[in-house]
Design brief:
This protein is mostly helical. The protein has helices at 14-20, 26-39, 62-73, 92-107, 111-120, 122-149, 156-183.
């Protein structure tokens, strides 16, 4: 089947997306794109010129292309994307490094798009807070544990148990709150 023309000049073709992601081969781009689609549960048919034709031409609407390119370009930095990735072995530093890369790429976007993200995406602000505070929490917990190890009367095991139980409760409550928000018809 011959290559179709883009419906709108502003939209990106696969070859333009490959360049936008800074990749040399379209196969590398497509491989990472498919993994991003799977990870973030994005329907691949949304990016087909004609979704009824299997293997049809892809197009990337201008409103999504640059943000999608950021995710694809940084796929290798995603802690869960590594070979034999084990969730238990992911460090806070790895997570923060991944989010720092995403934030840097958002900061490098054209001024208009960057401004829209800054103003309308709560997740951008949340990610900045995560990068700032996550490593501080881990370092604070390590320092807290170390200081209590030196106390002769302190039972550090009981203290760590109490902290772990309270963290589990907080995680559960956050999960339940999110489920309740999803259940309530706005």
């Amino acid at each position: 089947m011959p290559k179709q023309k883009k419906r709108r000049l502003a939209d990106y073709s696969t070859s333009e997306m490959v360049k936008l992601c800074g990749m040399k081969a379209s196969s590398t781009f497509e491989n990472k794109r498919d993994k991003v689609f799977e990870r973030y549960e994005i329907d691949p048919t949304l990016f087909k010129m004609d979704s009824s034709i299997d293997g049809g031409e892809n197009f990337y609407p201008v409103v999504y292309a640059e943000l999608l390119a950021i995710l694809i370009k940084n796929w290798d930095k995603t802690p869960s994307s590594r070979k034999n990735a084990n969730r238990d072995n992911v460090t806070v530093t790895q997570i923060c490094d991944f989010y720092r890369a995403l934030l840097k790429d958002v900061d490098d976007l054209p001024k208009e798009l960057r401004g829209l993200i800054y103003k309308s995406c709560q997740s951008h602000f949340t990610t900045k807070c995560l990068v700032i505070w996550a490593e501080r929490v881990v370092n604070g917990l390590a320092l807290f544990t170390e200081t209590h190890m030196d106390q002769p009367e302190e039972n550090i095991g009981k203290l760590c148990q109490a902290l772990a139980i309270n963290l589990d409760k907080m995680t559960y409550m956050e999960y339940m709150n999110n489920k309740l928000i999803e259940a309530v018809p706005w």
